Amino acid sequence: MSNLTGLIKISSHQNSLASADVVFVHGLGGDARSTWHPKGKQDDDDFWPVWLGQDQLGLNIWSFGYQAEATNWKSNSSMPLFDQASNLLDWLDIHDISKRPLVFITHSMGGLLVKKMLRSALTFQKQAILEQTKGIVFLATPHTGSHLANLIDNISVLTQATVSVEELKAHSPQLRELNEWYRENVRSLGIATKVYYETQPVKGILVVDPDSANPGIEKVKPVAIPNNHIDLCKPDSQNSQVYLGIRKFIDECLKTPVRLKDDSNGTVYVGEMSDSTGLDKTSDHSDVLLRCLHLTDLHLGMDGLENLWPNVEEIFFNDLEYLCQKVDSLDLVMFTGDLTQHGSKWEFQQVDQLLGKFWNKFRQMKFEPKFLAVPGNHDLVRPDKFDPALINLQDLWNKPYVQEPFWNKIESPQRQLVIKAFENYVQWWENTTVPKPEIYSEGILPGDFSATIEKDGFKLGILGLNSAFLQLMGGDREGKLALDMRQFNGACNKNGPSWAKDHDVCLLLTHHPQDWLTDEAQDQLKAEIYSSPERFALHLCGHMHEFNLSSLAEGGANPRRRLQGCSLFGIEGWGEENKKKRLHGYSLWELKIKGNTASLSISPRKAEKKQHGGWKIDRDTSFELPKGEDSTKPVKVKLLRERGRDRVAQDKITIDNPLIITQDNQIQKWKQKWKQKLSDYQRKLDLAEDESKKKN
User: Fold this and answer.
1) Is the pLDDT of residue 283 over 70?
2) The domain 2-267 is classified under which CATH number: 3.40.50.720, 3.30.565.10, 3.90.226.10, 3.40.50.1820?
């Protein structure tokens, strides 16, 4: 193993201007290569450290190897954790890994080693390593020790346990103290944390239990993976949950502000890391182009889908590639509900795998769109039909004594019933690894949110509302569902109208079209949520499986526009023979901003069965499309705020020299981002205070 000890370079950026370093650190009994290889090989480059280097340009990928045997039979060269940490620190120093942002990926004991190394760096004043460490991934790290170490020690007469095993004992005071240090200092050090843990035993033994795998960092939720301790760190494909999640984590870590010093003249360059080697160069653009993909009603888990979907997936990707070849950007993917058929955990796991394929395809096209979704009536687990709370929601929703507690008291039985029904959806959304907008705020019902997409000084606001919370039961619910102004305000720091005015254009996402709402709720939608028709340039929904684009102007005002999407996978039955009708489609729409004017066009795509028997997705000719064009004629969209040059300059950083971003400019960007985050925190505190007052 001598050739696998020390800091080994796995792959490097093709030129000398690498933007960041990623260091893998194995655990007990592992080595620098086979630990991470799906087949445990040491001499094969088809494994995920290499994939990362290929997928994320500008990275140097390293793996640290060290002696960490479980027993002294093979070797007695294992060193105490403190010595191993000093050794790692020295190797990092030898290879100058303190000049670029740094992310560690650790397995088992490797996570303890990195924490100890960081603490040693603080002790020995290796400040550069601390400043450049942007994130740590812990894969089944026993932060408070492992019961397996106790077991090995108990039979040490036979196995001759090493010092490494001694230090890994469950409830070890040294490990508890090390974890307390990390937990107390990780925020001030600016280190992001990602945690995965095993759920399957190795030969009947769960090596690291969930409690020990959790370092206890605020707002860091450990992710359970259905693998054992050994296989957890060996993703077998670039579509695996662990690989996609860590890839996204690295990307997010390297988008945090960094400082790069030019030693020749002392100039400090401040910017954001990206997937290239350059700085984030921004400028004052008055022309902006936003492209968004609208998907709806996949119904993954539906009977018959498993055998039919592969062909649909193929024609979908073929058509998507055709459209994307005609454009130079894709900014957002929006899913308006019914991703699943029954809202089960298994179905949402399958959704995640499918989304992984989508984003792999996007990345092949050099796109990295953000993802947003609202739940549909199939994305929930139906409660017991005899539950009194369900009966109240079903039959008595129009009564104030049912509605008022529902909206005002989170502990009300009806509200708790809704929260429970969408529990799997919420858990999926929190853990999905596809990219999400950085500015995102949750609302009062599961799936409610507001989000912001910023591009070249332009701000697109997206409001997502749960329209399915009253469809927890079977039967015809058309005209019986609800939306409420309290959902709008709850998702927007208690003031939806103010949130809308802080954007140039806003969109509304729901699963159901408005005619599925009660008369009262339709009035809420028009008079309060919309208020003025131009507040939302477009209302995107699904549920009906058929395309429908409508535009309604009332009283001489601007029109309200609604796009009801075609199902990505829909099967409808009709007639005595229950004949089947299949519906597959999606849309790509484009928002073009030029100065203070904006226009919207939509490319509707729909599958048709051809004479030869197969299916093909093409433009939907039921829309009025110009001859030879894929999209509708552009319609004018009224901007919600003036986009004068002065106002744009306030939103964006004007750069005289594109190679230098001043510290004042960067601070301005940080302030904007943290202002939104602090606003979200304050909203949650206010809600908690309100609930406390009501209880008292």
Assistant:
1) no
2) 3.40.50.1820
